Amino acid sequence: MKTLFLVLGMLLTLHGTMAQAADCACCTENHKAFDFWIGTWEVTGVNGTLVGTNTIRKEQDGCVLRENWTGATGQYTGTSLNFYNTQTAQWEQLWIDNSGSPLKLKGNRIANQMILSSEPFKQADGKEYRNRIIWTLNKDKTVRQLWEVLNDADTPVNTLFDGLYTKKE
Fold first, then answer.
1. Cα–chain center distance at 93
2. What are the tens digits of pLDDT across the range 144-158?
3. Exposure of 119 by Cβ count < 10 A (0-12 exposed, 13-18 middle, 19+ buried)?
4. Which residues of 132-146 are buried (b: 16+ CB within 10 A; e: fewer)?
5. Of 98, 157, 107, 165, nearest in space to 133 by CA
6. pLDDT digits over 81-99, tens only?
7. Global confidence as pTM
8. pLDDT, tens digit, for every residue of 36-69?
9. Selecting from 1.20.1730.10, 1.10.510.10, 2.40.30.10, 2.40.128.20, what CATH number does the domain 28-167 have?
10. What kind and span of H or E run contains 146?
């Protein structure tokens, strides 16, 4: 009889553990790959001046990272939704700012960097380019965000943003 209770107890424990895992659809390591960006940040440019603040929070039971950006003057704002798409096995970002400009990116984390890129687009010169943004987790827990435009040979031709994120205390 003791053996029966022991087996039943183990089965109930196993079932409870499996139910918790099933209830947490976004608790995988892939879903946590961008968690280093979570927080409230002051962002400075390459010359050290404040360029804005950014708050990144987990929402929707941990399935979405929501970014809320405010430029240093308060006039430029933007929001992004970031999520790991299990169907494509990639991270995706949809950015929209208060001027109505959207940006769609996708990619993955490699080592200490999240690397997301846009689909190719044509410029007035008839050539194809794409946006690439790299978030690098530094050893001191700051995050560098580098946004570049790449040509069709994947060579950077323009830097649109280069900022250092430092967590607010």
1. 7
2. 999 999 999 999 999
3. exposed
4. bbbbbbeeeeebebb
5. 107
6. 999 999 999 999 999 999 9
7. 0.86
8. 999 999 999 999 999 999 999 999 999 999 999 9
9. 2.40.128.20
10. strand 143-151
Q: Shortest CA distance to 75 belongs to which of 96, 49, 99?
A: 99
Tokens 């409870």 locate to 16
Q: Which residues of 4-137 form beta strands (DSSP E)?
A: 39-44, 50-59, 64-71, 77-85, 90-97, 102-110, 113-117, 121-122, 128-137
Residue 165: beta bridge partners?
43, 143
- Could you tell me the two tokens for 36? 């280093």
Contacts of 90-96 spanning 24+ positions with Cβ under 8 A = 91/33, 91/34, 91/116, 92/116, 93/133, 95/67
What is the residue type of 14? Answer: L
Model pLDDT for residues 93-117, shown as the tens digit of each residue? 999 999 999 999 999 999 999 999 9
Long-range contact list for 108-114, CB < 8 A, 24+ apart?
108/33, 109/33, 109/34, 112/36, 112/136, 112/137, 112/138, 113/137, 114/33, 114/34, 114/37
